């Protein structure tokens, strides 16, 4: 144990020193101690088993200033399972082993163990963290990371105060039932969420008692004497709507992030226009919206002025996009002070554009362009390489079967998380790691994607290996589900990088025709990009961050069913791995 602490301390000192010398501004250390536990929660009034950090869902908010070092000492108090936390949008330059992705960057933190994450937040913006082992994010393991500008820098827009909101979806079945259901024959899909949550609050109608298991006005005490009863109690303060107090006339910066398991969301601030100013931590040319699409894994900053009739309150609302919704609108209350928080807005729940209006969604996705001249002093401010990439991957997304199980596959390979974290496997050369195909087998531009006779795919746990500094283009090509007429929307997220979005298109990607349409003038930098049904999305990044970085669909269920790949870069320049990140699979001491 002493030895482990020594290693942590060593890394810690190096990091703070590096941050100081690079920026010549005093960087602080933000220290957190967290305990991960199971908890009975009633976020939408219906009680269920979930995972909480320090008893909270969302977990504690991480607040830091650009250049600070965040230290999170995490104790796993889950009695029977491991845990990891991923810091979504933080690139972990020099610390790939603290990225918090099971099977990629570290071994799961075992039950009863304490592990300390130490990393620099090098770019101001709105980020979040979440569980990245199995489907732990959908169990409630998530929270906000807010990185502010240091005192010597100013935002390129004005606001008086700021508010952060995590948006998500919620099921009454536990994560375990959901996961086992997906891995069953026939599959038991999780279905649409029962509720949508804003800052971990929703409101299920307790009278909708499909299976007579929970009852209106049934408290925990009453249920304890009735074995088939699940508490659902609408006046339970735990499921009171989240309240956003505002002062009339002031301008607010709203930090939004979608941490949903499944749902693409559309956010509305009733009666208020929003000006979008930041996407995934990058300043963008401001534009106004009345409703904002936000895909799982994405974050935005929007400004609004509390300039409406102050005698009433208003709804903040989220609706499902991209899937035929059966889930009611998720609602929070914008409280115009000094009105009471209990003053319900007099209007019905705000309505979003039709769930399948993909033309509207694509048009909004295309509106994001970077705000020029900002952040140029930083590593992330560098311009997009204009020359053709050294390596181009075309990743075809299909739904397949393996031994009768329904899976998602990328170029016919369905990802299975390996027991040995790939970072350690490369670092110590522990095993032969397979390379999945760069392009889909039998990819013919004249045919529709994945019109394959053989619906069977294969399992894989390999990685794409890139040379350090190589420019990489990835075309994510949507195919179809087992039903050939059906294609889902998939938000794709890359760890360790922010990538340039070069373009979106419908149908099949034709490199000769479509690469000419790439935006190489001012493509936006992001870490999560939607891939629309039967469409493609093209991204570019530079493989300049030695590590192993998951690139995957941010839908929890899809990644659990194999929809992801691993990118390994600079594998001969990997840093020393802290011993506490090891200990599983082939990294057991007997193998080293
Ligand atoms: C809740 O569901 C019941 C039964 O379907 C319905 O009568 C009632 O109007 C619903 N309440 C609300 C607030 O939607
Ligand atoms: C639930 O309890 C509240 C408070 O005791 C009561 O006002 C309400 O009528 C009850 N609703 C039902 C459907 O029993
Ligand atoms: C797919 O795999 C199943 C066994 O899991 C097998 O019965 C079937 O023949 C395979 N299909 C093809 C086209 O190979
Ligand atoms: C996909 O993988 C399966 C199982 O290994 C194989 O039978 C099939 O031919 C592959 N399909 C293509 C297009 O390579
Ligand atoms: Cu997906």
TrEMBL record:
Signal peptide as annotated in the record: 1-27
Primary location: secreted
Catalytic activity reported: 4 L-ascorbate + O2 = 4 monodehydro-L-ascorbate radical + 2 H2O
Keyword Cytoplasm: no
Keywords: Copper, Disulfide bond, Metal-binding, Oxidoreductase, Secreted, Signal
Location of the Plastocyanin-like domain: 38-148, 162-337, 438-570
Cofactor: Cu cation
Presence of the UniProt keyword Signal in the record: yes
Matching SUPFAM superfamilies: Cupredoxins
Annotated EC: 1.10.3.3
InterPro entries (UniProt xref): Cu-oxidase-like_N, Cu-oxidase_2nd, Cu-oxidase_C, Cu-oxidase_fam, Cu_oxidase_CS, Cu_oxidase_Cu_BS, Cupredoxin, CuRO_3_AAO
CDD domains: CuRO_3_AAO
Subcellular location: Secreted
Subunit structure: Dimer.
Alphabetized PANTHER family for the sequence: FI03373P-RELATED (PTHR11709:SF394), MULTI-COPPER OXIDASE (PTHR11709)
Family according to the record: Belongs to the multicopper oxidase family.
Protein name in the entry: L-ascorbate oxidase
């Amino acid at each position: 144990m002493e030895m482990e602490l020594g290693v942590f301390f060593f890394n810690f000192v190096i990091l703070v020193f590096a941050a100081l010398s690079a920026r010549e501004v005093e960087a602080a250390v933000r220290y957190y101690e967290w305990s991960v536990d199971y908890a009975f929660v009633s976020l939408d009034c219906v009680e269920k088993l979930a995972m909480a950090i320090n008893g909270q869902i969302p977990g504690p908010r991480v607040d830091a200033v650009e250049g600070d070092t965040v230290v999170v000492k995490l104790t796993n108090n889950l009695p029977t399972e491991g845990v990891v936390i991923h810091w979504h949008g933080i690139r972990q330059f020099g610390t790939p082993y603290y990225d918090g992705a099971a099977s990629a960057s570290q071994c799961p933190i075992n039950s009863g163990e304490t592990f300390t994450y130490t990393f620099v937040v090098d770019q101001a913006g709105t980020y979040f963290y979440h569980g990245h082992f199995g489907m732990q994010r959908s169990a409630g393991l998530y929270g906000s990371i807010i990185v502010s500008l240091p005192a010597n820098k100013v935002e390129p827009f004005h606001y008086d105060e700021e508010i952060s909101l995590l948006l998500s979806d919620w099921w009454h079945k536990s994560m375990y039932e959901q996961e086992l259901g997906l891995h069953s024959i026939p599959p038991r899909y999780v279905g649409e969420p029962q509720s949508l949550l804003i800052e971990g609050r929703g409101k299920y109608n307790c009278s909708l008692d499909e299976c007579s298991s929970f009852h209106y006005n049934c408290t925990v005490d009453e249920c304890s004497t009735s074995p088939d009863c699940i508490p659902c109690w609408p006046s339970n303060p735990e499921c009171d709507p989240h309240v956003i107090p505002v002062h009339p006339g002031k301008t607010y910066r709203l930090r939004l992030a979608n941490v949903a398991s499944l749902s693409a969301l559309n956010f509305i601030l009733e009666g208020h226009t929003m000006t979008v100013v930041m996407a995934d931590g990058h300043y963008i040319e401001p534009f106004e919206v009345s409703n904002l699409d936000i895909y799982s894994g994405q974050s935005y900053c929007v400004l609004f002025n509390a300039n409406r009739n102050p005698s009433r309150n208003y709804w903040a609302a989220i609706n499902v996009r991209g899937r035929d919704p059966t889930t009611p609108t998720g609602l929070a209350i914008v409280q115009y002070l000094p009105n009471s928080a209990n003053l319900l807005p007099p209007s019905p729940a705000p309505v979003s554009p039709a769930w399948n209006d993909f033309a509207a969604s694509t048009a909004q996705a295309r509106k994001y362009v970077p705000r020029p001249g900002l952040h140029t002093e930083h590593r992330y401010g560098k311009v997009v390489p204009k020359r053709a990439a050294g390596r181009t991957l075309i990743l075809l997304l299909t739904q397949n079967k393996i031994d009768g199980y329904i899976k998602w596959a990328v170029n016919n390979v369905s990802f299975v998380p390996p027991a040995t974290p790939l970072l350690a496997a490369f670092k110590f050369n522990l095993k032969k790691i397979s390379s999945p195909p760069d392009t889909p087998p039998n990819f013919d531009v004249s045919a529709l994607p994945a019109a394959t006779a053989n619906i069977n795919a294969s399992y894989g746990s390999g990685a794409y290996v890139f040379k350090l500094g190589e420019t990489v283009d990835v075309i994510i090509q949507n195919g179809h589900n087992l039903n050939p007429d059906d294609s889902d929307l998939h938000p794709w997220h890359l760890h360790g990088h922010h990538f340039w979005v070069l373009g979106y298109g419908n149908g099949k990607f034709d490199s000769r025709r479509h690469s000419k349409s790439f935006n190489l003038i001012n493509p936006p930098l992001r870490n999560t990009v939607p891939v629309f049904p039967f469409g493609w999305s093209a991204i570019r990044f530079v493989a300049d961050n030695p590590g192993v970085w998951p690139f995957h669909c941010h839908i929890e269920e899809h990644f659990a069913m194999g929809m992801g790949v691993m990118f390994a870069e600079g594998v001969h320049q990997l840093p020393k791995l802290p011993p506490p990140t090891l200990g599983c699979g082939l990294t057991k001491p007997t193998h080293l």
